[in-house]
């Protein structure tokens, strides 16, 4: 398996009661909620004015700002971060940052609500890098940037993943009549976390496994997902690359079962694999 395709899952849980914030601030003109958390603890600047330190959770005048986070402990290798944010009246803007030694090793999420005319709940997903796979409540929905319409109001888990980067999952609150935007930044996967011995069933150019086996075809994403069952809703267990060959174990309604690592098996779409018997 291509070691760059391995993912380290970072779970960030942020249950945001946006409706509660709207009610709380409904009688305060032109004021919204701002919540900022970071690791490590950092000083918060809005338009170069010191606001406070993380964690921060308070109301603030609505408007567009340049937010900057500066780590308090200068002995750490964490780099500063800045980005434009919007604070909307009566709504919450949530900023979560994991500050690494550089932008590539940093990660985080920004969440904010916008009022829409449609009587539905929408969720808009953006990511750095873009074209990341978006999964809502365990079901793959497409790639970022992506707008999900007619989302059932209430709590949902939204995950994004991209080969060579950490994955992130955020728990969100979808609200009817509003579009919730989630901006993800994925950190590049550290080399020492992504190293792995090649699977014993993955065969090099000069050697083929015992028949029957499958050869992975080219895919739109440059990799193929291995799942725990013959369904797109089954859990993703690995990612494999085009050209690799794996022992064939069985098939079921357009899916092939393969052995993709020592003692590990899973299911892949037969659409992207050629079986040799």
UniProtKB/TrEMBL annotation:
Q: Give the matching PROSITE patterns.
A: SH3B
Q: Residue limits of the SH3b domain?
A: 211-277
**Gene3D superfamilies from the UniProt entry:** SH3 Domains (2.30.30.40)
**What is this protein's record name?**
SH3b domain-containing protein
């Amino acid at each position: 398996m291509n070691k760059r395709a391995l993912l380290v899952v970072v779970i960030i849980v942020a249950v945001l009661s946006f409706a509660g914030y709207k009610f709380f601030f409904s009688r305060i003109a032109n004021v919204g909620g701002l919540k900022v958390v970071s690791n490590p603890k950092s000083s918060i600047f809005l338009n170069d004015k010191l606001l406070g330190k993380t964690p921060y959770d308070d109301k603030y005048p609505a408007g567009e700002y340049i937010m900057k986070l500066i780590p308090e402990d200068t002995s750490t290798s964490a780099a500063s971060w800045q980005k434009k944010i919007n604070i909307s009246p009566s709504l919450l803007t949530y900023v979560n940052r994991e500050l690494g030694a550089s932008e590539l090793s940093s990660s985080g999420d920004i969440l904010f609500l916008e009022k829409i005319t449609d009587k539905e709940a929408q969720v808009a997903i953006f990511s750095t890098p873009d074209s990341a796979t978006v999964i809502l409540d365990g079901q793959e929905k497409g790639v970022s940037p992506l707008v999900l319409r007619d989302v059932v109001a209430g709590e949902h888990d939204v995950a994004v993943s991209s080969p060579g980067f950490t994955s992130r999952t955020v728990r969100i609150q979808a609200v009817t009549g509003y579009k919730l935007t989630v901006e993800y930044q994925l950190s590049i996967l550290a080399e020492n976390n992504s190293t792995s011995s090649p699977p014993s069933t993955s065969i090099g150019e000069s050697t083929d496994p015992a028949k029957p086996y499958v050869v992975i075809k080219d895919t739109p994403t440059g990799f193929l997902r291995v799942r725990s069952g013959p369904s797109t809703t089954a859990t993703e267990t690995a990612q494999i690359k085009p050209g690799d060959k794996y022992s064939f174990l069985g098939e079921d309604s357009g899916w092939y079962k393969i052995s993709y690592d020592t003692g590990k098996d899973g299911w892949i779409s037969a659409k992207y694999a050629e079986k040799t018997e």
